[in-house]
Structure formats: structure tokens, C-alpha cells
Write a sequence for this structure.
């Protein structure tokens, strides 16, 4: 198959820094959209994959699944886009489109395996897919998203992963005006959760271990801040939340948060893909409480999220970096030293 | 307040065997129904309370919350019942009737505290309530249930706790014809779960560690038996269940059961009111899976359950015992040596 060459940054082994490399992209097929990448967000998953933390990385790893760019070429059957459109690509670039999950617009749970934006088997070229730390990418039109032109394109990049990851559970569990909603953890995910819950009309409570995050949480849209280490505050809020979005990215004791839920209310985990602490069965039984997980969102819901961001002028708070500074940015993500997401300006790679 | 004396069996301390004692019941008030107790089921909770396992027992403990009897006297404002009616009393005898939970027919979660059938503060006589190991009881008409006359009254006793505990989650989570439903654990709760799920039209899979329970599970209505220690069988059933009812009464590793759930499916815990093992966040996230708890059911739903039992001729499999043999029966419950519930014939106490 004919290919075009692109500059990219990738890691050749699990111990290497990211470095400049050249990758192949497929030529534009009938249903493909070729995108000139403007910006790409840095997600903590990128670092996990580069470092093989999940034991499934294939090298070289070219990460990046928060891609913003302009359409530069269209396949003959592409109807949804035209040249120059501002578009996005998130965590997925394909799925089987034929299974129960795909029929329900839940491509992230494709029974036959969604094609993720990087480190997934590449159906076209063989090998595995390469992500957005690159000058360009070619994607099936069904996995390309429209970015509202009225929002800042740089701050839009993290919407493609951090945004949909937090919007989807708030939307799926029907958070609405007047609901008391807790967001646990103020990082890349949590700050988006606060913005979305606020825009949905909820009474938003930032739940954090760090009193020094209170001011920023309120700036982002939290109406209250609950310090989870303060037993008295936690008791005062017991059994009062309609919904809790838990963005903590590591294993932790979830029982104190279950205690905050109302009868029949749900806490959804979106961060911790690892073992949590022991869960107290009685805490769930005494109130018919629920704990669930949620993974990004389907393509249809991702477009709904972007349209919602257009209506409410929501973007991520970002710090721009050049491609050449990505290794330092990775260290700062690991140290939680960013408010709240890094976005790579891909102009730096083109020059 | 005027009282009447009743014979009962109770424990005077947390180390004592149950023994014959005399207790007071209130005189019949305007909204009260006085019941001559025919049968009372033995629930594992009775044993926990007698032995103060939950550190909240008040002595003497007269247990029993699976009560079947005949109406012998009615208050002036009682309209729902007449003398001679076959009635039941379950785990609750009163609630505030005024809170959000009570307004939703979820008296078991009464914000101001439901009055449980035993070991709850007694609003009428002071002290605490006494359960059904007794010749009679007087209960507010709103907490009295009609027992269908076509079902065996002895086998009906455990419906008031084991029955509603398993019916309620199956009903609330809308189990329906064709659903693949797992019941984890074949004991007093599990055997009712199998009967209900079968009657609701589900494809019922008994999930058990014990291959020797397979035959009985099928007799009770299971269509398949899945041995949870068999990795190959567990893998074959991965991601296939619409709903799982987990009746295991002690802490255990729930992750293998979460793996059995379909996308968006729920497992409900009804047995383990204690710490479970560590729960893997990734198992919930990869499939938007849910784990919840459920506690008995409200009075309205308990009546629905009893009416359902009347329609489908469902009762518990019981072994009858005399009141004088209760201490031995307790030991056999602890040893899981009963198929599947003991019911006390209260005639033995009257003689």
C-alpha cells in the first residue's frame, strides 16, 4: 500500500526518552480524512504506554490521542467534512461497527476490539497504530469529530480524552440541574468534571485531600470544597450526594466516598484501572448504593460533548509545550505539576 | 400502657443459649393488628443478633423476623384486615412515614430510622422490640402483609426476609424473560434467588464453588451450573451475564464475578455486610460495569413479592423445628446444614 512519511516523536524502548522519528501513514482511502495536526494533548496514558506500565506496549510507541487539526484531503466518499474544517481525533480510529456495542454507539467497548489511536493492530498497514505526536494522521471519517470553531483549539485538544472521560458518566447517569455532584480529585480529569457538572446545572462539590486546591476548584466552577481528610466535614456530607465522579488515578479506599452517596446514588470510577482497597459490602447494602466504572465514551457521545463545549464555551486549562520538550513535560505530568493538561504545539515539529 | 404477656424464646446475654422467657406486648391500638404466631423462620441475622456479632445487640434478644400468623384482634381503624386472615410480618414493624425514603416506599432506608422487628427502640413500651420467637405480636396495620392462602404457610415464613431480600434486586433491576441471570451461592438466600429468577423467565445460572450443589440447583430452577473455581468455565461465561445476584454471606473476592458481567450490567450484593476483598477498578471501567448493594425491600414491594409467590406457587424449602430445638438449629445454620431454611412451629411453644 502507498504511504506518506510523517515526522513524529516516539519511544523505541520502554526506557528510552521520546525522540524524533519518521513514520508511515496510509494514503487517503475513499472514506478517509487526512488531517494536518495542529495540537496534541499529553495524557497520562501516553506515559503509561511509553513506559510499558500496562505490559502491552509495542515499540516504537508514538503516543497521542487528543488530536486537533485541519482537514487537508478527503476520500471520494467523505461527506461529513470539507477541506479546512477544524477536526479532532480521540482515543479510537476504528471499530468493527457490527457488534452489539457498536450498534449502541459504544465503540469503546467493541466486542471485536476497537482500534485505538496508538498501539492497536493497524488494519491497513499491518504493525500497530501511531498516535498524534506527529505532523499528520489519516482517519476514517466516522472516527473524526467536528470541533466547534468558537472555542480555543488548543484547549479543545484534551476534550478528546479527559473531556469525554468525564462528560460521558455525568451524561449517562443523567446529572441535572440541582443535583449535588461530587468530583473526587482535581487533576486533568477532575478539572473537566468540575466544568461539565457546573455547566449541567449541578451543585458541584470538589472533594480533595488538598486544602490548597480549594481556590482553584472554585475558579473552575465548584460551589463547595470538601476536604476528604477532615472527618467532621465528611460526616456532615454523609448520604447527601446524587452522584460522585471519582477521578483518582491510583488505587485508594473508596468507602469514605460511598458513605457520601444518597440512597440509590452512584459513584463512577474513571481513573483507577488498578486494584482499589477493600470495599465494604455493608456500605453498598445500607442504601442500595452503586459503584461503577466508565471508559471514555462512544463517537456519537464525543460529538455531543464537543457540541456542549461549543454551547457553553468549555475548554481544558492547558499549558502549551513544544514537541522537543515532551520528555520534560512527561516528568511534570508524573509529578502532577501542570494546570491541568499539557498540549503540544505541532508547529514546533514541522519547523 | 396496658400490656399482655406472651411466651417467647430469647437470649439474656451474648453467650447464653435461647431459653423460655415471658415478654410484654402492647395492647391493640386503633391501627394495630394482633397476630397469633403460627410459624417463624430462622434467619442467620437472628444468630448474629443473639451473639452480638454486629456489636449493637440489646438483651434480652428475642429474634425472629419471618413471622406468619392469623389475625386475632383488630384496632378500630384497621381496614385492611379481618379476623382469621393469614398474615406476615417481616423485618420492620414501623417507620417515620414522612421522609424521602418512606415517601418512595423504601421504609428499609427510613432517614429517621425504621423500627426493626427486634432490637430496635420500641416507641410504645420503651425498651426495645421483640421478634417472632413468641406466641403473638401486635403490629401497625401498614407493616402487616397479606399471605396468599394458596401457598404453604410454613414455607411462606422465609419469604418475609430471604424472599424479599432476593426478589427486590431482581425486581428493581428489572430482570426479565430471556435475561441471563447468575445467582452466586446456594443457601437460604440463593435458593430463593433461583426460584424467583426462574419464575421471571430468566435463563438462570447457579454460580457456586461446590459441584455437589449442581443437582439441587437444577431441581430449584437453575438452567445451568457454573463452578466458580473452574477457570475454564469462568472464562467461557465471561462478559455474558445481564445481572448477577450475589448472596455470599461473607467477605470474598468479587472480581471473578464482575468479569462475568456484560457491558452496563450490574452485580448486586445482598449477603456480605462486611469488607470484601480488593476490587479491581479496571474490571468496572472496561465495560461500564456496576456493583451495588440491596437491603430487604419496602412494604409495598414485599406485598408484590408475596402476590408473585401466590401466582407462581413459590415458597421456601424449609425444615420445621420445635421452639425447644432452636439452639441446635442455630448450630446447623452456622454449619450451613439446612435445605434451605428452618421454620419454627410455634405450636410447640404454646403447649
Amino acid at each position: 500500500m502507498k504511504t506518506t512519511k510523517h515526522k513524529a516523536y516516539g519511544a523505541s524502548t520502554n526506557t528510552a526518552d521520546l525522540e524524533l522519528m519518521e513514520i508511515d501513514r496510509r494514503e487517503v482511502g475513499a472514506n478517509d480524512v487526512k488531517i494536518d495536526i495542529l495540537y496534541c494533548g499529553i495524557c497520562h496514558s501516553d506515559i503509561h504506554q511509553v513506559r510499558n506500565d500496562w505490559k502491552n506496549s509495542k515499540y516504537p510507541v508514538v503516543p497521542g490521542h487528543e488530536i486537533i487539526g485541519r482537514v487537508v484531503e478527503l476520500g471520494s466518499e467523505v461527506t461529513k467534512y470539507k477541506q479546512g474544517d477544524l477536526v479532532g481525533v480521540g482515543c479510537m480510529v476504528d471499530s468493527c461497527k457490527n457488534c452489539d456495542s457498536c450498534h449502541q454507539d459504544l465503540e469503546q467497548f467493541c466486542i471485536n476490539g476497537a482500534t485505538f489511536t496508538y498501539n492497536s493492530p493497524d488494519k491497513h498497514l499491518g504493525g500497530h497504530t501511531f498516535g498524534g505526536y506527529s505532523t499528520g494522521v489519516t482517519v476514517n471519517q466516522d472516527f473524526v469529530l467536528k470541533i466547534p470553531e468558537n472555542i480555543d483549539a488548543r484547549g479543545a485538544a484534551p476534550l478528546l480524552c479527559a473531556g469525554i472521560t468525564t462528560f460521558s458518566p455525568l451524561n449517562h447517569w443523567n446529572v441535572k440541574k440541582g443535583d449535588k455532584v461530587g468530583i473526587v480529585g482535581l487533576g486533568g480529569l477532575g478539572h473537566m468534571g468540575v466544568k461539565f457538572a457546573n455547566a449541567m446545572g449541578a451543585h458541584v462539590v470538589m472533594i480533595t485531600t488538598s486544602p490548597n486546591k480549594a481556590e482553584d476548584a472554585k475558579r473552575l466552577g465548584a460551589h463547595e470544597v470538601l476536604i476528604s481528610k477532615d472527618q467532621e466535614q465528611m460526616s456532615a456530607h454523609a448520604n447527601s450526594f446524587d452522584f460522585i465522579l471519582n477521578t483518582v488515578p491510583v488505587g485508594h479506599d473508596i468507602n469514605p466516598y460511598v458513605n457520601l452517596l444518597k440512597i440509590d446514588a452512584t459513584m463512577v470510577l474513571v481513573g483507577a484501572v488498578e486494584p482499589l482497597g477493600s470495599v465494604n459490602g455493608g456500605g453498598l447494602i445500607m442504601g442500595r448504593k452503586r459503584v461503577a466504572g466508565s471508559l471514555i465514551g462512544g463517537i456519537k457521545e464525543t460529538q455531543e460533548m464537543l457540541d456542549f463545549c461549543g454551547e457553553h464555551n468549555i475548554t481544558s486549562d492547558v499549558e502549551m509545550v513544544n514537541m522537543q520538550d515532551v520528555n520534560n513535560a512527561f516528568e511534570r505530568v508524573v509529578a502532577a505539576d501542570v494546570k491541568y493538561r499539557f498540549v503540544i504545539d505541532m508547529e514546533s515539529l514541522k519547523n
Notes: The longest helix of chain B spans residues 299-312.
